[in-house]
Amino acid sequence: MTKIPSASDAAPTPRRLRDALLMGGLLSLVLASLAGLAAATGWDQTMGQLARLGWMQGAALLALSLANYLLRSLRWNLFGRRVGLPPGLWRDIRHYLGGFLMIATPGRLGELVRVRWIRRETGLSLDRSAPLFVMDRAADLVAMALILCAALALSSGHIAGAIPVAALALAAAAVATHGRLMSALVTRGYRIVGRWPRLFGRLRGMARTLGQFTDARVLAASILLGSLGWMAEGYAFHLLLVWLGADIGLWKAVGIFVFATLAGGLTGAPGGLGGAEAAMIALLALEGLPLETSVAATAVIRVTTLWFAIGIGALVFPVAERMSKRTADAVEDR
Which NCBIfam families does this UniProt record tie to the protein (predicted)? Predict the structure, then answer.
């Protein structure tokens, strides 16, 4: 049977180009800002700080980031089993890592490409698979909020605005994962709009699917996996500061990293670009670190976390896309 390409297959190309241009523009602005700060403090000082790091330190930072990604991939697999995905650990890891290419899309909505791969390879409907995306984002918010609270309790001093940010993250996660509440909000939205009954009907179906994730063991395991993953990156930031001769303590470093990541996400910018870097540099400066150290630490940690994830996504995405199409074509030919 010959597969006829549909308009939906071709539609993503302009959107991908738009997202790529947006990401490139934001990256250029961030790099220009970091370069301006480095120039203001003196290139020699900033490069001198970076020269403290060798390939072994870089490998350690990347390994801790990879641990974060793999732990969260296991969480994705756990959620997938709850919605009825057939067994396939490596398939789920491939989908999760491949989706990282789309991290820097507005609201990270580009990561919904994982749902497309699931539909192609397993036939699972959108109503049942889309809540995976919601649960994944909510689980990250909960894990990071809990880590931030722990950091505030175990470190000396405080981070201005950290408690409201943690509370907002927990509240957003609670609302997004409450099936009945989401279903009621969708119903209210339909009554206000009065149009697109099929769309709102599918949204209600997705909201009801959220009830499958309320099992205490699933929630506990997902929070544990997410917390261990984000702690790995927070610990990487602590190690980086130690190697740069700016040890501010484990929990203070973890708190700054998590707060900056959450604050960057609240800006709505793709990947938190701009907001996360600004928050991190400002908080490090408040700890008394020289600007050249703050800029160097921020640049390195963002390369070894956000951009490392995008790099992995760039490698895995074509594989995931090709394998999902091959599976879909094989099913159609039967």
Answer: flippase-like domain (TIGR00374)
